Amino acid sequence: MDKQPDGMENRNLTWQTLQPREERWRTLGQRPVIAWFTGLSGAGKSTIANAVDRALIEAGRHTMVLDGDNLRHGLSSDLGFTDADRIENIRRAAETARLMADAGLVVIVSLISPFSRERAMARCIAGDIPFLEIFVDTPLQVCEGRDPKGLYLKARTGKIANFTGISSPYETPEAPDLVASTDGRTIEQSATSIISRLMGNSSLRSTIDLDSNSRDLDRDLASKAA
User: Fold this and answer.
1) What is the C-alpha to C-alpha distance for residues 48 and 138, in angstroms, rounded to an integer?
2) Residues forming a β-bridge with 67
3) For residue 77, which of 15, 89, 184, 210 sits 20 to 30 Å off, Cα-Cα?
4) Weakest-pLDDT range from 4-18, 74-88, 105-119, 125-139
5) CA distances (Å), 108 to each of 2, 11, 41, 148, 215, in order?
6) Are 119 and 38 in contact (CB under 8 A)?
7) Active-site residue 190, yes or no?
8) From the candidates 46, 76, 113, 202, which is the catalytic residue?
9) 162 CB burial (10 A radius; 0-12, 13-18, 19+)
10) Are 117 and 100 in contact (CB under 8 A)?
């Protein structure tokens, strides 16, 4: 019997063995990476993610951006902004990112993702795919001063409930893989180290295992790449 993921035994589900994902990676000429941008609203996540995405594409990488606002127009259109809905939004985004990464893409996720536990859940869902938690470090007062969507003003006047940083907490990452400071820096300056890291992590290695009996890469290689 095929191996089933945890929790599937009692749901009459069987994991279907497909062609090795590494074959897709070799065809694309790259390894997948998930870059998870987290930070306050207005911190610059989407702007930096877009700059990183454009740079990677110009360098020949195959990428996809999962932006929090865009996801809420479709995949998560049924969710609100309660803690429970935020958690489910993160789970959906992480599962989608994992599917895209299995296909070989460098997946750039831009979500406030305010809770440490759920960011850890996203990393767990990524499995052996290299996962970079990138903290876009912009002080609350700077974000509120920018307020490109007018959301902080609405939150301050009580027109928006459960707004991160005002009426809902943001748990600052304790040990992010990368920190992108934005205050007093250009977009290019904030993006440079991220681009360099993703280019390195997505470089195709000659040691990729193409054994059709193995669904996953060697975890040691994946942890070194991360």
Assistant:
1) 12
2) 110
3) 15
4) 4-18
5) 32, 32, 17, 22, 23
6) yes
7) no
8) 113
9) middle
10) no
